[in-house]
Amino acid sequence: MAAAEYNLGDKVPLGPLVYNVVEVEWKSQLGEFPSLRMPDRSFLVIRLEVTNGGGETLMIPQAKLENSNGETFPELTDGAGLPNWLDMLRNLKPAGTERGEMLFDVPANSYRLRLTEGGDPERARAAYVKIPLSFDGASDQK
User: Fold this and answer.
1) Which domain holds residue 35?
2) For residue 99, what is the enclosing H or E element?
3) CA-CA distance, 59 to 17, in Å (whole number)?
4) What are the pLDDT digits (tens) for 59-88?
5) Is the peptide bond before 13 cis (omega within 30 degrees of 0)?
6) Are the CB atoms for 24 and 45 separated by under 8 Å?
7) Is 140 inside a domain boundary?
8) What is the Cα–Cα distance from 97 to 115, expressed in whole angstroms?
9) CATH of the domain at 125
10) Which are the contacts of 4, defined by CB distance < 8 A and separation ≥ 6?
């Protein structure tokens, strides 16, 4: 069965977790001098919220980006310079909602963000959110 595809702003239900990717932004740098951080390619910041509709504390799994060639790019494990970074250890209590940002270092392109319900990454149900290539309204100065 193929994974469902969603657009930015759509609610994405995966088991007890419900994702909503609210905004994406390309950045050529993070932070300010003297702690300026430069990407190898381009930083892609994905702002989202995740709600736990289940009855137990769950971990929000790491996400991946996938391009049209099937290449995957993992979420960065260091969010230095990103004030609302979700961190890597993301526990979400029942009925809780977490808002924050995921960070990727990728070539400028269109992508699909692969989200999962957690558990075994190879067996967990997944869904994709289409991330179009757009620089409209993006700012490098945040």
Assistant:
1) 4-131
2) strand 97-106
3) 10
4) 999 999 999 999 999 999 999 999 999 988
5) no
6) yes
7) no
8) 16
9) 2.60.40.1240
10) 12, 127, 128
